[in-house]
Amino acid sequence: MRTALAVALMSLCACADKTSAPRVIEGADATRGLAVLERVGCAACHQIPGVAWPQGSVGGSLDGFAERSLIAGRLPNQPDTLVQWLRDAPSLSPETGMPPMPITDAEARDVAAYLYTLR
Ligand code: HEC
C-alpha cells in the first residue's frame, strides 16, 4: 500500500516536472532573437512561427520547440546546449545537416530565448 502511494506520488512529481519546464536564459531578449534569426536566414531551412517567409523544410518546423525535451532528437534541450547548437551544431553532432551559424554568443542566447517562447 505504502509502495503504491509512493509510486503514485513519484509519477505526479514527474508529471509536474514535464509540464512546467520554463527554460529561462538570463539577460536574453526574445524580440532581439527574432530579429537575429530573420537576419541570418534560419527560416531558409526551418518553419518558424513569427516568420512569414521563407518557410524552409530542410530542418523541419520549430513550432512547439519549447515543449521538446531533445534537440534534434538526441541532445538535452537545455539553454547552454541549445546556445552552442545554434552557433555550431556540428561541434555537438558532426553528422548533422545544420551548418554553423554566423552569430555571436549573445545573439545565440537571444535566439534561444525566442525559441523557448514557441509552445
Ligand atoms: C542550411 C539549413 C539550416 C539553417 C540555415 C539552419 N538550420 Fe537549424 N537545422 C537544420 C537541420 C537539417 C536540422 C536537423 C539537424 C539534425 O537532426 O541533426 C536543424 C535543427 C535545428 C534545431 C533542432 C530542431 C529539433 O527539432 O530539435 C534547432 C532548434 C534549429 N535547427 C534552429 C536553427 C536556428 C535558430 C537557425 C538560425 C540561427 C538555424 N537552425 C539555421 C538546418 C538548418
From TrEMBL:
Keywords: Heme, Iron, Metal-binding. Pfam families: Cytochrom_C (PF00034). InterPro entries: Cyt_c-like_dom, Cyt_c-like_dom_sf. It comes from the Bacteria. The keyword Heme applies. The keyword Ion transport does not apply. SUPFAM superfamilies: Cytochrome c. Residues 28-119 form the Cytochrome c domain. This is Cytochrome c family protein. It comes from Brevundimonas staleyi.
